[in-house]
Amino acid sequence: MFVQIERRRALHSLISALASASVTLLLCGSISFAQNPKNLPPEIAAELAKSPKPPPSNQVVGIDVNRFVGSPLLSPVHVTENVIFQRSILRGGDPYHAGDPGAVLEYWKDLSLGTMLGYARSAIVEVPDEQFWYVESGKGRLDNGNGYWDLHEGIGVLIPPHARHRIENTTDVPLQMLILTYKATTPRGDILVRDVHSLPLPEEGSHWNYFGTNVFVPEDGLEPNEVFAVICMPPMTNSEPHAHIPHQAEVWIKLPPFDSYMMLGSEVREMPPNTAFLSPPNSQTTHSVLNLMKDESQKWLYLAHWVWDLGPLPKLPTVEPKPLGNLH
């Protein structure tokens, strides 16, 4: 009994000492853990002044970054083209003032996830908006009444307003794709298809580790300052945190199959497939994405609208349609 009492007293003394030390650390934390240039020798203060200046925290900026993040799982389902289950990820809105979550797209109407059930087939339809499709998984076929294109992972499609088209899922596995709708100033006249797997990677990455492949560029009918691309990041890489100025729009959508993480200012968010964010265009809130996997590269779909024209860009190979009569 005496030994137990002594052990309790010793444990109580240890806990008290730890508590006292914790309080001391909290009270002195700003001195112990921060670089405080006051009362430092001039040569040390001069060296500290060369260090990169951290951006302001989200609390200082006064921003709720959750408003700029979207997920299809948080949106209701509606049917488009009679066969596509569509769920919005981000929508048109004002990114500069308070508003509904996800309603932050300044230049585009809607970014959605579309899913077609096995062997579903639409009629030939015309849609008043320009559409950009990016196929994530499954297999199918797109046709315009005369020619057709095979659909599979990595296929990007530009469909001009009122262009006749029909889509079919050719297997019993759901066909899944990202769908961007918008009003085009100078839309192209015909459907354009590209396969990202046939497009070249750059020799060097941007923002440290972004290795981007342009899928569609202004020469294809986008605005003179727009590009749609797929960004690849090798294993165990991060990207340079940076902010965007007003009226510069940049959307990142995580492509399957892996989860990742995003940094928006001073906060971190999980980024499972089909989660998207708009980089807040306030010149203060930085953004970055990370690939923390050790043996897998990861991909994001990237939508950009800059405030300057891009100038001429290299011509990209296309997927030509096959005669529809070949199917019969």
Please characterize this protein's 3D structure.
- The chain is mainly β.
- The protein has a single domain, classed as Jelly Rolls, CATH 2.60.120.
- The protein is 13% helix and 34% strand.
- Strands 2, 3, 4, 5, 6, 9, 11 and 12 form an eight-stranded mixed beta sheet that branches. A six-stranded antiparallel beta sheet has the order 1-19-16-21-14-13, with no helix packed on it. A four-stranded antiparallel beta sheet has the order 10-7-8-22, with no helix packed on it.
- The longest helix has 31 residues, at 2-32.
The shape, in one word, is elongated
Give the second-level CATH assignment, the architecture. Answer: Sandwich
The N- and C-terminal alpha carbons lie at a distance of: 93 Å
Q: Segments where pLDDT lies below 50 for 5+ residues?
A: 1-8, 14-31
Q: What's the CATH H-level superfamily name?
A: Jelly Rolls
Helix fraction, binned, reads: 10-25%
**Class from helix and strand fractions:** mainly beta
Q: DSSP strand (E) fraction?
A: 25-35%
Helix/strand order: HHHEEEEEEEEEEEEEEEEEEEEEE
Q: Number of helical runs? A: 3
CATH topology: Jelly Rolls
